[in-house]
């Protein structure tokens, strides 16, 4: 039986572990708390991924090590380097293939669609952290690839949009979003992200390069929210944009909101992710937006009961 280790139990990590287990793989899901989905094929393990010897022991015999970890958003410069180094060293020691979940930060601002051959050109602290992680992985002895997603949609997904907008829409109250409401924006579904990671891990040509998750939608925030409300049979959304000045003020009291300031170019300008190569080579396609939003609505209603 194929054996994989997944580090991190956020939305993508949980989806990835379930998909692998459903496909007959034995999975160890590693988090600090030992959390994760209840599944007969998933062994939940409480461990610190920066403890290299412990993680190495957990990964002995694993075919693939998947990095779906996510430090606190306001602690990336301090917390990502030891965490990334621990997983990369473990992959080198064990010979496990190493699949990283990434984002678009390392590219910096890009005019037009972003393709996988776009070079790293970060202009932010967090972008520089992600670029360094990828450079270190490429320079290592491990067999590596990175799957890059845009902002996440889907049930239980910790994205800014998912945390702010859908709960407000279903409650019939106003919501304020930190970005422009009417510019095109690529959205990544967590299940599509997990399927892209698996497809890359199982493809001989996937290594040593990045891949983009096919977008479930490129609707602007306002149009996306109108569609969400339509499917939920909710009132017309009351959606406003948080101004830069207001975001600065909010950031004085909230360290997470403060971290959004340097990334505002991703939400204020069109953001289009080109995944043509991923679809052609890895055979992954996007889940229809209606399916993604319906699942999100159903999950929020379960939580609200």
UniProtKB/TrEMBL annotation:
Boundaries of every NAD-dependent epimerase/dehydratase domain copy: 6-206
SUPFAM superfamilies the UniProt entry points to: NAD(P)-binding Rossmann-fold domains (SSF51735)
Highest rank taxon of the organism: Bacteria
Signal peptide range in chain numbering: none
Designated name of the protein: NAD-dependent epimerase/dehydratase family protein
Annotated organism of origin: Kribbella yunnanensis
